[in-house]
Amino acid sequence: MKLYVTFTSPYARLARILVLEKALEDRVEIIAAKTRAVDSPYYQVNPSGRVPYLIDDSGVGMEDSQLICAYLDNLDGKPRFHDPRRQTDWAYQRLEFAARNMCEGICVWVREMARPAGERSPTTLAHEVARAQRMADVFEGRMADPVILGAPNMAQLILAVALDVARKRGLGDLTTGRQQLANWMNSLSALPSMQKTAPSSHRMQP
């Protein structure tokens, strides 16, 4: 299989984490895709130009981190991060999608900051900073939730990746002043898969 990524995309990072967690390194080739470039060869692989993008063993491609992570997790028939029972566990679903929305808002801020200074929208930037702070407060109050305290799951991974994006891309450390969230983030960041996929301070390519 081939997994196309950029090494600064939080969504591609989630797929890379699943490759490591499921010990699929020998089955999945990680390929750096050139995105946001005119006539990039990657557009012949994935016309939308987004990452991650997975081509399975039969040559069929699939897009979107949510789909790809679920596919990788289920390859052995023993999903660890996508318990089928959670499909109708609305408490879990609310938490996972809150984390996804938080991550997306942070990515909007990063994309806006990547624009030339004179083209940035102060309104958009302020809106996303305020959103991120509110969401961090929400998660600070959810640190005793069984979903957070249990074995690693997608909700946890998405939240951790979102916090990392904010810290590494300049929005700020959203765990500051939120001790429970900080303690949890320190614990999850110790996972080998988190450490091996940790982002640098390069400009993010969503």
Summarize the structure in words.
The chain has helices at 10-21, 42-45, 65-74, 90-113, 122-140, 146-149, 154-169, 179-188, 192-196; strands at residues 2-5, 29-32, 53-55, 61-63. The protein has a 4-stranded mixed sheet with strand order 2-1-3-4, with helices on one face. With 206 residues, the protein is of the alpha+beta class. The longest helix is centred in the middle third of the chain and has 24 residues, at 90-113. The protein is built from 9 helices and 4 strands; from the N terminus they run E-H-E-H-E-E-H-H-H-H-H-H-H. Residues 201-206 have low confidence and may be disordered. 50% of the residues lie in helices and 7% in strands.
Number of helices: 9
As a whole number of angstroms, the C-alpha radius of gyration is: 17 Å
**Beta-strand percent range:** 5-15%
Secondary structure class reads: alpha+beta
Biggest sheet overview: 4 strands, mixed
Strand and helix order: EHEHEEHHHHHHH
Cα end-to-end separation: 22 Å
> Judging from the principal axes of the Cα atoms, what is the shape?
globular
Stretches where pLDDT is under 50 for at least 5 consecutive residues are: 201-206
Strand line-up of the largest beta sheet: 2-1-3-4
